[in-house]
Fold:
Amino acid sequence: MTDHSRTADAVAAVVDDLAGDGDIDITSWTDLDGLPRDIDVLAAQAHQIFQHARTWVCQREGFEPSPICLLSPLAELMDVFAQGFAEVERIAVADWQSIREAVVATTADLKAVDQMVADWLPVVA
Structure:
């Protein structure tokens, strides 16, 4: 059985963030630390959805029960649909990966700037 608790937590956090003004509010750079993991969860879910579609939606067998079945020409379309799902998944995964890389790079840049400013400013007791 799949444990969906982490996914549910990620979705709940996004829904909670969107419940206010429709924006995801990042109030601290440390909020960005968990975002790549959340993106990975969403990318994994997308993969599962496309895998399910290719496995269960794109079955030729339902259209080929006998040689005289009037729906048998649709069987060939299932291969086309499977290819379409594979291409959409490839694009979606590439987009998620691009977003993830940008979040990681931006987080590192923001932390570096924070550290630079902290180094420049005197510590006040």
The first helix runs from residue 5 to 19. Residues 5 and 75 are 38 Å apart (CA to CA). Helices lie at 5-19, 35-57, 73-120. The mean pLDDT is 81.
